[in-house]
Amino acid sequence: MSGPLNNLEPIRWPAPAKLNLFLYINGQRPDGYHELQTLFQFVEKADYLTIQANQTGHISIAPESEIKLEDNLIYKAARALQQFSGTPFGAHIDVEKNLPMGGGLGGGSSDAATTLVALNQQWQLNYSNDILADIGVKLGADVPIFIHGRTAIAEGVGEKLTSVEVAEPWYVIAVPPVHVATVNVFTHKELIRHTPKRAIDQLLQGSWHNDCEPLVKKQYPEVAKAIDALIEYAPSRLTGTGACVFATCNNQQHAQSILDACPAWLNGFVTQGSNESALYKQLKLRNKK
Ligand SMILES: C[C@@](CO)(OP(=O)(O)O)[C@H](O)COP(=O)(O)OP(=O)(O)OC[C@H]1O[C@@H](n2ccc(N)nc2=O)[C@H](O)[C@@H]1O
Ligand SMILES: Nc1ncnc2c1ncn2[C@@H]1O[C@H](COP(=O)(O)OP(=O)(O)O)[C@@H](O)[C@H]1O
């Protein structure tokens, strides 16, 4: 039997976006999934989940969105943790959605990771991050990196993480007006999928690329045009399988001036890279108390 909940107050948690600073595809496994080497960094821009635990066991999400409740990764994460733990507790989750969906910024996976980390605390479960990552990876390949919360190179299909420190530049993230389905990129015959695997220190040296970029640019002219618009001013490339692209800038003013110079059809925002995610920072503060 679990004791009563000792905190029924709502708590606001961040679910930040990520960028894939490089992404190399090293081959395909017999089950069809691809082996990757990718460098994840977090940015300040985030969704926010305000979570109020309850004793009823009921899970609800507000406001209503275009995603059906049972398909929402927040709901799926909460249900998965309930089922794994057998907890009698539930939660109401208010979502402030700031990240574009399906843009390669990992917003859905980040929401799921934040739900797992937050409910682990608010339901007083005390599971390790490794256990939360095992639950989370079934919801999306990128959930473990958001639970890890520190800049890292992911290998395998994304489950093997090595923390690294890199610069924390300002970025312009542009959001081309198209949706790229990850599955379509990975199943396309023209995808670059045999880049030789390299050691971590070798990966960190030299210039960085994304193996999905040539194919996504060819299939989605809006993505090609977005990269062309940014690359005039700063090194720019695709994140994940897109559609978002990012320009790496010298400072905030540089980033803002590039955003201001973007054509009117291209939406975007300015944000700073961070080697510790906002979720990781908040957790560190809470655990110090
Ligand atoms: C490649 C990344 C890099 O961050 O792209 P983005 O989603 O961020 O753009 C992610 O790891 C993606 O993770 P996620 O979006 O969760 O992918 P999933 O839903 O697990 O997979 C969607 C489909 O893509 C293919 N897939 C995905 C990941 C992988 N390593 N190999 C694959 O072949 C599979 O066909 C899978 O059915
Ligand atoms: N809470 C959620 N936020 C965003 N996307 C969600 C959520 N729940 C389910 N999804 C689904 O997951 C897909 C991938 O979302 P997201 O993680 O934002 O993009 P990506 O994997 O391209 O970085 C979306 O297209 C959407 O249909």
Question: Any descriptors?
Answer:
alpha+beta, Alpha-Beta Plaits, globular, binds 4-diphosphocytidyl-2-C-methyl-D-erythritol 2-phosphate, nucleotide-binding, 4-diphosphocytidyl-2-C-methyl-D-erythritol kinase, Ribsml_uS5_D2-typ_fold_subgr, Ribosomal Protein S5, domain 2, 289 residues, binds adenosine-5'-diphosphate, GHMP_kinase_C_dom, ten-stranded mixed β-sheet
Describe the protein's architecture and organization.
The structure is a single chain. This protein is an alpha+beta fold. It has 2 domains: 11-164, Ribosomal Protein S5, domain 2, CATH 3.30.230; 170-274, Alpha-Beta Plaits. It is globular, with a radius of gyration of 19 Å. It contains 10 helices and 10 strands. Strands 1, 2, 3, 4, 5, 6, 7, 8, 9 and 10 form a 10-stranded mixed sheet that branches. The longest helix has 16 residues, at 107-122. The protein has helices at 73-85, 107-122, 129-137, 143-148, 182-186, 200-204, 213-219, 221-231, 252-261, 278-288; strands spanning 11-28, 34-54, 59-62, 90-96, 152-156, 160-163, 170-175, 236-238, 245-249, 267-274. Adenosine-5'-diphosphate (ADP) is lined by residues 67, 71-74, 101-109, 111, 240.
